[in-house]
Model the fold of this input.
Amino acid sequence: MNGDIFQGKWKQLRGQVQQKWGDLTDSDLDRIKGGQTEFEGLLQERYGYTKERAKQEVDNFLAANDLKRM
Done:
């Protein structure tokens, strides 16, 4: 999924993101404004993921929600 599509779907995904990654606050999610790269960076920051793991976590999340990277 390209960044523009991710950003466009952000409002729909936001609740699901908070369910999966409960340590993320509303403020965190507001700060990234639906940017996929920023979201991956936030996962690295909050959960100590490597860059590769954060990207894989997001890919898995999108696939589980029938949204694939383009």
Q: What stands out?
A: The chain has a mean pLDDT of 88.
